[in-house]
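Memo subject: From amino acid sequence to discrete backbone structure tokens
Keywords: amino acid chain, backbone geometry, structure tokens, three-dimensional fold.
Body of memo: The sequence and its backbone structure tokens, given next.
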Amino acid sequence: MIMRLRKKNLLGAAAVLVALTSATVAALDKMPRAWAHHTRGHGAQEPIAQAAPSRLAIVLPGRGDSTNLQIKANAIAQFLSREIGMPVDATVADETAAVEALRANRADVAFLSSRPALKAEQLANSRLYLAEVRPNYSGRYTYRSVFVVPSNSSLPSGSTPQTLQQLRGKRMAFTSPTSGSGFIFPVGELVKLQLVPNRDRLNGFFGQVSYGNNYSGALQAVLRGQADVAAVSEYALKPPYITEEEGRKLRVLYAINNVPAHGVAIDDDVPVAMRERIINAMLKLNEPANNQLLRDLYNSTELVKIDHTRHLQPMREALQRAGIEL
């Protein structure tokens, strides 16, 4: 059921999040350290020689469409271990814990979405080197954030400011306050078009603002008549998020391009030569003999090299427009 934004609910959710994240970080603390030379704050570095790396630690966050992830992560770890020639430890954790593990030198590699990738850059000087390609991404390694309405809605679809202006007074269901395509990019677009001043003034434009907690929840709010419009990723309009039949009852009202795809971040502690070995090993997952491992993990079909700054720039801009800090 869709969740209304209430102070008590937010405080309760925050407490649960802190508890879960703390538990995950505790588990990550047990992972062997590969190499570490950062001083406090992960900024200045001690002028000491790096010990020869003995293990690689990789973190893989769960996603809404991922199942049996630890088993699949172990398979990726085994593959990378063979290719790199050293033990690889794979841990499943949420993205907050993954970023903290990079900062604390408890992880060397992590699969991250764009906002956590920016946070990892800020805290750990980690950078994205690879991005995921999916067949349901309209931009190959970028995708669209979409406003979705019932297929029989009287609101006409379009790509002009007027298309979003007609949402004034409507009931809006965002995915969650932390979702890139389900909140940050939509709010950034509304600010860019001067329909709202920032994320804190959404109620002055919409008649009601609610959060579905995930893509399925936001879309179900529209399907059940609890909201007039939802904001989600373009790929959420198909299974496993909703059924094919439910998808036929919805249509895209307005789309925002260039949401950065998830990618592979590598910490700056990792020596350059080892980083290249990791990247080359990851790229071998694109080969037919190995590709099923990648597809099983997150339904991606390919990994491609990207420029960290250029790839994440749309997220930086959306965050700035919406007035959201990392």
Notes: The CA atoms of residues 194 and 218 lie 24 Å apart. Residues 1-26, 32-49 have pLDDT under 50 and may be disordered. The radius of gyration is 21 Å. The first strand starts at residue 3 and ends at 4.
